[in-house]
Amino acid sequence: MTVHIGAEPGDIAETVLLPGDPYRARWAAQTFLDAPRLVNEVRGMLAYTGTWKGNPVTIHGTGMGMPSLSIYVNELIRDYGAKTLIRIGSCGGMQDSVKVRDIVIAMTASTLSTPSRGIFRELNFAPCADWTLLRAAARAAEASGVATHVGGIYSSDVFYDERPDLTEQMTRHGILGVEMEAAELYTLAARHNRRALAILTVSDHLLSGEALPSEDRERSFGEMVRIALEAAF
Ligand SMILES: O=P(O)(O)O[C@H]1O[C@H](CO)[C@@H](O)[C@H]1O
Ligand SMILES: O=c1cc[nH]c(=O)[nH]1
Question: Which ligand is in closest contact with the Cα of 214?
Answer without folding.
Answer: 1
